[in-house]
Amino acid sequence: MVLHHTPCDHDTEARVVCSSCGEQLRHQDMTARTGPGYPARLLDDPAVRQRFTAGRPLGVARADQA
């Protein structure tokens, strides 16, 4: 499949970029944290809290979970 951008009449490819700096997002550069809509009651569960450990890359299994 080829994506064609009609306004400029060129073929293109989809890219996901950072809304702040414009750099292309790469999986290995991403981490997740809870946001304002995350239910506080779920954070009482240690297993849930562990999923959002600061600085841990997304999708990378920890040694004790592999």
Read across the widest sheet, the strand sequence of neighbours is 1-2
Q: Structural class given helices, strands, pairing? A: little secondary structure
Helix count, DSSP H or I runs of 4 or more residues: 1
Give the H and E element order.
Answer: EEH
Please give the radius of gyration in angstroms. Answer: 18 Å
- Assign a percent range to the helix content: under 10%
- Distance from N terminus to C terminus (CA atoms, Å) equals 36 Å
Give the overall shape: elongated
How is the main sheet built? Answer: 2 strands, antiparallel
Q: Quickly count the domains.
A: 1
Number of strands: 2
Q: Extract low-pLDDT stretches.
A: 61-66
Average pLDDT over all residues: 82
What is the beta-strand fraction?
5-15%
Protein name: Putative HTH-type transcriptional regulator
